[in-house]
Amino acid sequence: MSLPSSTLTSLPEQIPLAHERPFEAIRFCSPIPGLRLIITAAVHGNETCGTFAIKRLVGEIESGQIKLLSGALTLVPVTNPKAYRLERRPGDRNLNRRLMPTSDPQEYEDYVANWLCPLLAEHDGLIDLHSFQSGDKAFALFGPKNNQNALEPFTHAEIEESLVQRLGCQRFVYGWLETYAKGIRRRADQVQAGRFHASDVDVDINYGIGTTDYIRTTGGWAITLECGQHDDIGAREVAYQAIINALIHLDMIEGVKPLPAQHPQVLGLYDVFDRFHPQDQFAKPWKSFDAIAKGESIGTRADGAAIIAEQDCLIVFPNMNSQPGQEWFYLARAGGRLGY
């Protein structure tokens, strides 16, 4: 749960690296070989619903209430300890961008990556638990269709699309990395045009890689579950039930098999717009998944240029606090996948 801003300002920004909470991964391994699943929470420090859910599950496994039938289960209740301590999204930067090991760690999240990435690579699959600032209900993101393209080659679409429908939500989003890459190309064009200096913005497609994208590069599969708003205690139950549903569906624990979503809303991300200037303004206080009609104004640039919807769509991840040269909002359209 987030603290008031007055409380946050009293927290020390920097403490010695060795004094930060140590990285923690709780492992349970059945004598019977099977799937290797990792579940992460608090990748962003103010998104703690998954932390509560994981701690609850650990207690139930340790007490014998839940038994691991096969495979190995790794639980990471606090993935980003510094951000968690500060109760905000980043420690030094967003852990879910440019997630990869480095031989020259500079920011705190580089140290997290050097621990986390090898851990992710040991597993077959990942469920990453998050929460959101604005929106009305839980949703999940899954990866690309099976392909051998250079951007995001993948062979586990059937597993992701089957599992994601059984986590307990009804809204599903795909197309993240492909859309992000489109935005990077557009941003690079703005650098060429002189709007931004190359040293001030990110024009590397790899900047879009987070936990789920990274494990896919190692041959795994992954799902991100956005469980509810940051301060909604009910999001903890959403996170917990999603974990239980996943473990049952994957035959890792006993239980009644969860049914697939009955009324799925499937959305494909297809475009992203950067903010150019601090005075770029939205036409209204958009929330994620607000519907936008063709011809409707989405926002206005500082120079007066209007951004008009070219088709019926939905806005996703609108960020009125984004900085110039960073993503301002995404657009999605209904339909597409989830065939398993």
Characterise this structure.
With 340 residues, the protein is of the alpha/beta class. The protein has a single domain (5-267), classed as Aminopeptidase (3-Layer(aba) Sandwich), CATH 3.40.630. It is 25% helix and 21% strand. It is built from 8 helices and 14 strands. The chain has helices spanning 5-8, 49-62, 81-86, 108-121, 157-164, 176-192, 211-217, 234-249; strands spanning 26-29, 36-41, 72-76, 125-132, 139-141, 171-174, 221-229, 265-274, 281-282, 291-292, 297-300, 306-308, 313-316, 327-334. Helix 2 (49-62) links the parallel strand 2 (36-41) and strand 3 (72-76). The two termini are 35 Å apart. Residues 1-9 have low confidence and may be disordered.
The shape is globular
Taken together, the total number of domains comes to: 1
Number of helices: 8
What share of residues are in beta strands?
Answer: 15-25%
Average per-residue pLDDT, rounded, comes to: 94
Task: Find the structural class using helix and strand composition.
Answer: alpha/beta
Q: Main sheet, how many strands, which sense, barrel?
A: 11 strands, mixed
Distance between the termini: 35 Å
The CATH first-level class comes to: Alpha Beta
Under CATH, the homologous superfamily reads Zn peptidases
Count of individual beta strands: 14
The fold-level CATH name is: Aminopeptidase
Rounded to the nearest angstrom, the radius of gyration is: 20 Å
Oligomer: single chain
Instruction: Tell me the CATH architecture.
Output: 3-Layer(aba) Sandwich
Order of helices and strands: HEEHEHHEEHEHHEHEEEEEEE
